[in-house]
Amino acid sequence: MRRPMVFLRRLFANRRRATPERPLSDEQRRRLEHLIRYTIHLPDLFAQALVHRSYLQRLPTSASSNERLEFLGDSILNLVVAEYLFQRFPQAEEGELTKARSRLVNRKALAAYARTLHLSDFILMSQSAAQSLDKGAEAIVADTFEALIAAVYLDGGFAAARDFVLRQVTGALKVGSIVTKDENYKSRLLEYAQSHGLGSPRYVIVREEGPDHDRLFTVDVLLDGVHHGTGIGKNKKEAEQAAASRALEALAPEEDA
């Protein structure tokens, strides 16, 4: 009897349809491999993962979008994140773990992971879909990230998919682009600074990069003229919250934990 996971991988791989008329070029594949830190063995599979349904009108009728891959990737993502939180927080109750997982797998978090990989540069979509992306819509890049997870899984197995997901999640947590709990770090840092005679925090934008639809801000937070933290976010508010979080970790690690 086949193992369930092996059977599932083969089922999805065997049912892949025609690939895009513009498959990944060698240059695109190498760039994507560098960004996701994974060696691609089935380029057509990854090409399909990058096809939004709005682009199907430009493809043969037998072609398919990334929606099936998105379905599979969503399940893998939830499993990997649940396992990570279960092991990372052994004392946490079920409700706490559920809330933390939701903040690591919701659309906003997926879009943050996608931005670090510059997935919007690879997605095949219609002009109207691209315009919605330019206006800040996150669904397309979030769904593509899930499809990419499935592509890694079908191409390299669960261990490869798990490593890929954990790199994105832990990396985002490290820079503060996402958090596992709902906190107003700026308010907490202000209270801490004033109670310790450090004055009010000052936030300074040190870098803006990326296109308008995929902007990233890097912000430093200063207390009494001294740098205490750096944060990254898709807007100034997110970057400032991330910077305040890093400052609290440095100034009051026990309180922040």
Label this structure with key terms.
257 residues; mainly alpha; Ribonuclease iii, N-terminal Endonuclease Domain, Chain A; Double Stranded RNA Binding Domain; 2 domains; three-stranded antiparallel beta sheet; 12 helices; 9% strand; globular
Q: Would you give an account of this structure?
A:
- By secondary structure, the protein is mainly alpha-helical.
- The protein has two domains: about 5-175, Orthogonal Bundle (Ribonuclease iii, N-terminal Endonuclease Domain, Chain A); about 185-255, Double Stranded RNA Binding Domain (2-Layer Sandwich).
- Helices cover about 60% and strands about 10% of the residues.
- The chain contains twelve helices and three strands, in the order H-H-H-H-H-H-H-H-H-H-E-E-E-H-H.
- It has helices at about 5-15, 25-35, 45-50, 65-90, 95-105, 105-115, 125-135, 140-155, 160-175, 185-195, 235-250, 255, and strands spanning about 200-210, 215-225, 225-235.
- The chain has a three-stranded antiparallel sheet.
- Helix 4 packs across helix 5 (about 95-105), helix 6 packs across helix 8 and helix 10 packs across helix 11.
- The radius of gyration is 20 Å and the shape is globular.
- The protein starts with a helix and ends with a helix.
- The model is unreliable at about 15-20 (pLDDT under 50).
